[in-house]
Amino acid sequence: MKRVLSRVVLASGLVLGMSAMSPVLAADAAGPAKPDAAKGAQLYDQGDNARGVVACASCHGAAGNSTVPANPNLSAQSHEYIYKQLVEFKPKDGAKEALRKGADGAPSVMAAMAGPLTDADMRNVALYLSQQKLTAPATSTNEKLVDRGQKIWRAGIPERNVPACAGCHSPNGAGIPAQFPRLGGQFPSYIEDQLKLFRAGHRANGPMMSQIADRMNDADIKAVSDYAAGLR
Predict the structure, then answer these.
(1) Which residues pair with 162 in a beta bridge?
(2) Binding site membership for heme c: which residues?
(3) What is the rounded CA–CA span in Å between residue 57 and residue 50?
(4) pLDDT for 48-97, tens place per residue?
(5) How far is CA 58 from CA 82, 122, 139, in A?
(6) What is the DSSP string of 138-184?
(7) DSSP assignment of 106-145, as one string?
(8) Partners of 176 in the beta sheet?
(9) DSSP 3-state helix, strand, coil percentages of the chain (rounded to 5)?
(10) How confident is the model at residue 17 (pLDDT cuts 50, 70, 90)?
């Protein structure tokens, strides 16, 4: 009788234990919590001194509208794309370097900024920025480059197997959410720098772009970067 009773108690304990754990397991299975744009806005505008998080607005401007060409416009980008980039400024588990590096392969300035951010922080900020309007877009700066830039954007460079940029970034430069970024209204010098980083292998988070940029010379890159900036 004692053995039967002990088995009943043990079985009951296991059931209770599993019942207590099930909400946790269910939460893990559900994936990350839904992003919170309000929390993202607060972190973007104010940062978090206690955690060493610098306010994103100090570099990228109000609501993601930058006034400094070295710091890209972030408003109106898809939240999936922004989140992906923030993640890739950090080294992956077990890796020594991040996929996105800066000039000459040195750590990107963003590595230090993204370092203190949690996964939730990155998702929240990304969602907030995706909901903002690009109110101060950059534009083309060199009329002499228009024809060359337009040709590359619309038709690519067939003789070097460079595809049309419009195929992925859309004819008006709006991009394809979750896949390819908005380039219309982005600073031409920033686009140019990124293409060169892809070409040099320092920005290794887009293998397809590395291959494409490798087939482009400096004149190609400058022309298409300037053209893309003027798209709306």
Answers:
(1) 157
(2) 56, 59-60, 110, 165, 168-169, 209
(3) 18
(4) 999 999 999 999 999 999 999 999 999 999 999 999 999 999 999 999 99
(5) 17, 17, 22
(6) -----GGGHHHHHHHHHH-BGGGTBPPTHHHH-TTS--BTTTB---T
(7) PBPHHHHHHTT--HHHHHHHHHHHHTS---S------GGG
(8) 180
(9) 55, 5, 40
(10) very low
Binding residues, as ranges, are 56, 59-60, 110, 165, 168-169, 209
For residues 172 and 158, the answer to whether their CB atoms sit within 8 Å is: no
- Which superfamily does 37-130 belong to? Cytochrome c-like domain (1.10.760.10)
Strand partners, 180: 176
One-letter amino acid for residue 86 of the chain: L
Domains 37-130 and 143-229 share a fold: yes
What are residue 135's DSSP bridge partners? none
| CATH of the structural domain 143-229, one choice from 2.170.120.20, 3.30.450.20, 1.10.3720.10, 1.10.760.10 | 1.10.760.10
State pTM to two decimals: 0.87
Give residue limits of the domains in the chain.
Answer: 37-130, 143-229
DSSP secondary structure letter of residue 64: G
Question: Which amino acid, 228?
Answer: A
Q: Hunting for tokens 């996929």 — which residue is that?
A: 99
Q: Which residue in the block uniquely carries the two structure tokens 């380039």?
A: 183
